[in-house]
UniProtKB/TrEMBL annotation, chain A:
InterPro entries: CPA3_Na-H_Antiporter_A, MnhB, MrpA_C/MbhD, MrpA_C/MbhE, ND/Mrp_TM, Proton_antipo_N
Transmembrane helix listed as a keyword: yes
Membrane topology summary: Multi-pass membrane protein
Domain NADH-Ubiquinone oxidoreductase (complex I) chain 5 N-terminal, chain residue ranges per copy: 62-108
GO cellular component, one term: plasma membrane
Protein name per its UniProtKB record: NADH-quinone oxidoreductase subunit I
UniProt domain NADH:quinone oxidoreductase/Mrp antiporter transmembrane: residue ranges: 124-397
Ranges of residues in domain Na+/H+ antiporter MnhB subunit-related protein: 780-897
Sequence ranges assigned to domain MrpA C-terminal/MbhD in this UniProt record: 603-667
GO terms classed as biological process: monoatomic ion transport
Superkingdom of the source species: Bacteria
Residues annotated as transmembrane: 75-95, 107-136, 157-182, 188-215, 236-254, 266-287, 294-312, 318-339, 360-382, 402-424, 445-462, 487-512, 563-582, 594-612, 619-639, 645-669, 681-703, 740-759, 784-803, 809-830, 842-860, 880-901
UniProtKB/TrEMBL annotation, chain B:
Subcellular location, record wording: Cell membrane
Keyword hit for Ribosomal protein: no
Protein's name according to its UniProt entry: Na+/H+ antiporter subunit C
Regions that span the bilayer: 6-21, 28-49, 69-93
Length: 908, 124
């Protein structure tokens, strides 16, 4: 089972390539995959017919108890044979049908992908796995309907189908989860009727699951996507939209019938919805003149009837379900393929232009004749048995059944008329006015319909074979208890036979009087104006409008409103939190003694910030921002964080340089604050509220004792575990190195992104001013070089000693950038680049590679990624953390220099 | 000390948000820097300030009043990342000025955004 599924999946991946290399001939090779599946399934028949099941399973998400478990029983076997058997023929057919299409390989891939999904769907035993396959069929259907995506109608039909089936899929997912909870089992085979039918959740489960099934199987009122899906190439219509995918909903209802079908509601809903769908489909079919659309509406009819038959839950009804399912897939697949052949040969599918085709296309015509007879339910075809049993099953049902039988007689009569239209009107009678001179189609195109049609005939004629090998086990899988299965063509004069006779005569009558009937139908103009498609378009438009309105509310494009909203929400929740915490007895912290240096730092930080907020001169702005940052650095130094302080001071230096460089090209800061004074007050309140919230949050947080002893652990383990005295550095490059790796990645990415933005832009208005970056003073220029060299040396020392003393990769990298700044300012960027020899972006890349590479040592040693490894040459501890720190150094240096050079190049 | 630090962080945050709410993109960029500094102070303060010896250990053992090293490590990287963000913001500022000759935030949105495509034309 897994082999067959895997093979088809693999073929999907190979298809585009094969399609390119072999063109249409690829079909013969690709068809081998479904053929293999078909043969394998045939080989399982004895096991299944003997009442057994084939089970295979692999764990998928063990934590959630989701397994890829597959189970082959009678129902799966029936569907699996249809999927693989018709699939084989369709792959061959598609090769000829689309032989001149330039994306044939892609088409094969979509088709085989669908096949794998559909086969998975019918074989899956796990609820969630089944759902995943279910959605995959929807997606592949979307891709296939929109295959000719250059046409707007195809795109619209594809989207409509996806939205309707996808929406139903959401309901189904909810239903399946509830089902799994109610049944306390996630396998179809493990669910029990006793657990589910009495459960309080049963109504919800039923409605949700049925929504999924009805949308997928195009039941009223969700049927409208199916006729529109005929925009797809004909192989798709034949395969997905008549034989397989649209039957997925029916399949699921049949699959769940044994565990959910006992309640009254289930049966009534299925019978009523099914019968209504069947009637509407049949009436609408007669109004069509396009052969494909006629077939599409008759498919809707059949899907309705199948749904109805599950709902009957009678001996004959369920037998009829299985036979009809099989018969329909065979004849409808054949008819669709034949219509595609007619279209291919004559260039039209319009009834009025067709007729007398049997002379040109005898083989296709013969196949259509056989299929249409089965479609019309005439003996001795399989469709006849299906119809007889259908009536018998409905009559068994009692009053509801009698009423439904009446509806079904009309429906089946109309089906017969439609079958007449497809065969007699197209192939017999006067020669039509074809756009092209017709010719018989090639072997792969008539082989499919012929085989399917003959299959329908043989199954009917030798119905005891079908009964023993296929129908019996499938019926048992659908039924709630054991059901005796006994197929026959002639069972004497029964009510069913009488109904059948009425059907045939009525159908023949309607066919003969079809023009009159059409005219009569057309008189009901009011009714036809109620178009589901029109409603759908209006609904979709409304949804877009509402979505647009909602989006406009939040995506107003005003940066300030976004920031204000974020700040308000953050502040409100933080304040709520502090209020809540203080009501639980949280107190302000006991103040530790003041450090005057720290207080001075704080004062400088606030004053600088206030200055930056108030001043407009560019130099003043840069200076006060720098002062503020230095104040923060002083604070860090005073509270015992030397590494942080050095980093802050280095960053602040670079911030000032970068800011000065950019502001140099901009005008004086003109506007400050909002013009509107009311808005100014609001902004002021938001700012103060945010700051207040932050202050209170910190105070409340540190009022509590520090939970855990993380700090103590790091302090205690730094030297023995990390061979470093500088605990902060050991944390960065060893204990929490993975964190650091992510952070330097961010630094590198930001560098690349900023540099891209700063790339010379030819579209931009020309820069008016050409500044010279180099200093004029010779003395200064001579002095710069040794100074830069010294800085570079210092940066290396800082890097080396960082593990034990203040320093490290980050600080070293920033100091090295300062050296680069000096060189670039003094001698120009071009000179700086020459001296560096390697592009800075490459340096950053090498740094990242070193840092990540240092992690691999741990992996090689079967320890976690970035686990440290040490060597002690001559008692000197050398380890991967040093390598990692070098990586940090290079990344920071490379990324920042990259941005710096780009920015300065722009300046010149 | 904690109270002073917390109030400072709050004040810096207030000024930062005030600048972020400005119409001028230059001041927005300054606001990003101040807000970053404020949050860094807040994180370090949240690690408690009662022990103010630098977190350096020796073979003789752990110093008695060693500060909490974890927030320091977090803040150290945060400073560098904040700097990268700042330079990126500067690049955006620079680019905006070159493209649109304007640094007013709301005005930039008007000139930079293309009108939404009309869906009706495609489907009909």
């Amino acid at each position: 089972m897994l082999n067959a599924l895997g093979l088809i999946g693999l073929t999907t991946l190979l298809a585009p390539w094969l399609g390119r290399v072999l063109d249409a001939r690829a079909g013969w090779l690709l068809a081998l995959a479904p053929l293999y599946g078909f043969v394998w399934l045939l080989g399982q028949m004895p096991v299944i017919a003997g009442g057994g099941a084939v089970v295979e399973s692999i764990a998928w998400i063990p934590a959630l108890d989701v397994a890829l478990s597959f189970r082959l029983d009678g129902l799966s076997l029936l569907f699996g044979l249809l999927v693989t058997g018709i699939g084989t023929l369709i792959v061959l057919y598609a090769g000829s049908y689309l032989s001149d299409h330039h994306h044939l390989g892609r088409f094969y891939a979509f088709l085989l992908g669908f096949m794998a999904a559909m086969l998975g769907l019918v074989l899956a035993d796990d609820l969630i796995a089944m759902f995943v396959f279910w959605e995959l069929t929807s997606i592949s259907s979307y891709l296939l309907i929109s295959f000719q995506h250059e046409r707007a109608a195809s795109r619209r039909a594809a989207l409509q189908a996806l939205l309707i089936t996808g929406g139903g899929g959401l309901a189904l997912l909810a239903g399946l989860i509830l089902l799994g909870m109610a049944g306390d089992a996630w396998q179809f085979s493990a669910l029990s009727a006793a657990a589910i039918e009495g459960h309080a959740l049963y109504p919800a489960i039923m409605i949700l699951v049925l929504l999924g099934c009805f949308t997928k199987s195009a039941q009223l009122p969700f049927h409208l996507w199916l006729p529109n899906a005929m925009e797809a190439p004909t192989p798709v219509s034949a395969y997905l939209h008549s034989a397989t995918m649209v039957k997925a909903g029916v399949y699921l209802m049949a699959r769940l019938n044994p565990v959910m079908g006992g309640e009254d509601g289930w049966g009534s809903i299925l019978v009523v919805v099914g019968a209504a769908t069947a009637l509407v489909g049949a009436v609408l079919a007669l109004r069509q003149t396009d052969l494909k659309r006629i077939l599409a509406y008759t498919t809707v009819t059949v899907l309705g009837q199948l749904t109805m038959l599950i709902g009957t839950n009678t001996t004959y009804g369920l037998q009829a379900f299985v036979i009809y399912l099989l018969a329909h897939s065979l004849y409808k697949g054949a008819l669709f393929m034949a219509v595609g052949a007619v279209d291919h040969a004559t260039g039209t599918r319009e009834l009025v232009r067709l007729g007398g085709l049997i002379r040109f296309m005898p083989l296709t015509g013969a196949a259509v004749a056989l299929a249409a007879f089965s479609n019309a339910g005439l003996p001795p075809f399989f469709g006849f048995i299906a119809k007889e049993f259908k009536y018998a099953g409905l009559i068994e049902l009692g009053p509801l059944g009698w009423a439904t039988t009446g509806v079904m007689i009309v429906t089946n009569a109309l089906l017969l008329t439609a079958a007449g239209l497809v065969f007699i009107r197209t192939f017999l009678g006067r020669q039509g006015a074809y756009p092209r001179t017709p010719h018989e189609v090639s072997l792969p195109m008539w082989l499919g319909p012929m085989l399917l049609a003959i299959g329908g005939f043989l199954l009917g004629a030798f119905n005891n074979v079908a009964e023993v090998w296929l129908v019996d086990s499938a019926v048992q899988a659908v039924a709630r208890g054991a059901i005796p299965v006994n197929l026959y063509l002639w069972g004497g004069i029964t009510p069913a036979v009488v109904a059948s006779m009425i059907t045939v005569s009525l159908g023949a009558f309607v066919y003969l009087k079809r023009q009159a009937v059409r005219h009569w139908l057309a008189r009901w103009r009011r009714v036809w104006q109620v178009s589901g498609d029109l409603l759908w378009d209006r609904l979709l438009k409304r949804i877009f409008i509402i979505a647009g309105q909602v989006a406009d509310r939040f995506q107003h494009g005003s940066l300030r409103q976004h920031v204000a909203l974020l700040a308000v929400v953050g502040a409100v929740f933080a304040l709520l939190g502090t209020v809540l915490a203080s009501s639980h007895g949280a107190r302000l912290p006991t103040a530790s003694p003041l450090s005057w240096a720290a207080v001075a730092g704080c004062a400088l930080a606030v004053l600088g910030a206030a200055g930056a907020a108030m001043m407009r001169e560019r130099i003043a702005l840069v200076t006060s921002l720098g002062a503020s940052g230095l104040g923060v650095g002083l604070f860090f130094l005073a509270v015992g964080a030397p590494d942080v302080a050095i980093t802050q001071i280095m960053v602040e230096t670079l911030t000032v340089i970068f800011l000065a460089m950019v502001l140099n090209g901009l005008p004086v800061v003109q506007v400050t604050g909002a013009r509107n004074s009311r808005r100014r007050r609001v902004h002021l309140a938001v700012s103060i509220g945010f700051g207040l919230a932050l202050t209170l949050t910190i105070l409340i947080a540190i009022g509590q004792p520090l939970p855990g002893d993380l700090a103590a652990w790091y302090l205690a383990n730094s030297l023995p575990g990390g061979h470093g005295a500088n605990v902060v550095n050991v944390i960065l490059v060893d204990f929490r190195a993975f964190d650091t790796l992510g952070e330097i990645l961010v630094v590198a990415l930001a560098g690349l992104a900023a540099a891209l933005l700063l790339h010379r832009d030819d579209n931009a208005p020309a820069q008016g001013k050409l500044a010279h970056a180099e200093f004029g003073s010779v003395l200064l220029r001579q002095g710069l070089r040794p100074l830069a060299g010294l800085l570079l040396l210092i940066s290396l020392v800082l890097l080396w000693r960082g593990h034990n003393l203040p320093g490290g990769g980050f600080i070293g990298g920033l100091v090295a950038v300062c050296a680069a700044v000096l060189i670039a300012l003094g001698y120009g960027v071009a000179q700086a680049r020459r001296m560096l020899r390697v592009p800075p972006s490459v340096v950053a890349g090498v740094g990242l590679a070193l840092a990540a590479g240092a992690g691999l040592f741990g992996l090689a040693d079967a320890r976690p990624f970035l686990g440290s490894a040490w060597l002690f040459p001559g008692g000197l501890p050398l380890g991967t953390p040093l390598m990692f720190d070098v990586g940090v150094f290079l990344t920071v240096f490379g990324a920042v220099s990259h941005m710096l050079f780009r920015l300065m190049e722009k300046e010149v | 000390m904690e109270i002073v630090a917390a109030v400072t962080a709050g004040l810096l945050a207030s000024i930062g948000v005030w600048l972020l709410l400005d119409r001028n993109l230059v001041r927005v960029v300054l606001g990003i820097v101040l807000l970053g500094n404020s949050i860094n102070m807040a994180v370090l303060t949240a690690g408690r300030l009662d022990n103010r010896a630098a977190a350096f250990v020796s073979a003789n053992g752990v110093p008695e009043f060693a500060g909490n090293p974890l927030p320091q490590a977090l803040v150290l990287t945060a400073i560098v990342i904040g700097f990268s963000l700042f330079v990126f913001a500067l690049a955006v500022l620079r680019r905006t000025w070159e493209r649109h000759r304007s640094t007013a935030t709301d005005r930039v949105t008007e000139v930079a955004e293309a009108p939404a495509p009309n869906l009706d034309e495609k489907t009909s």
